[in-house]
Model the fold of this input.
Amino acid sequence: MTTLKITVEMKSGVPLYVQIRDQIKAAIESGRIPAHYRLHTIRELAGILRINPNTVARAYRELEHEGYLETLSGRGTFVVHKEPASTEFEPDYWIVAELEDCFKRIESEWHVPPQRLLHMATQAIERLSVANKTREKTRQ
Done:
């Protein structure tokens, strides 16, 4: 059975999710882990590495977006047998990923229910919009 050993350096300055993503991607591209290989669950890998599960989730999400992984509900996360998708920079994807991570952290640390978080996010966007309009008027 193929095994994938992932390590992270806490003090390297490279974000942990990037370290995880890059190690999995390298293992796939080198053929060390084959198509249809089932990866650890997010919680399992987070426990092994002693890190926050959101960090592993972000690495998996990015690899899934790039076409390296596929998550099947109730079955696990698997290496995709097709060629990886283009890795061109897609700002919307990265911004949404950052927002998701931020919302998960706020929800967890501040115990804010999702509906209230949605309401607060909407308020923040409205405030930004008003501030931008005010700035535009002062420039004219």
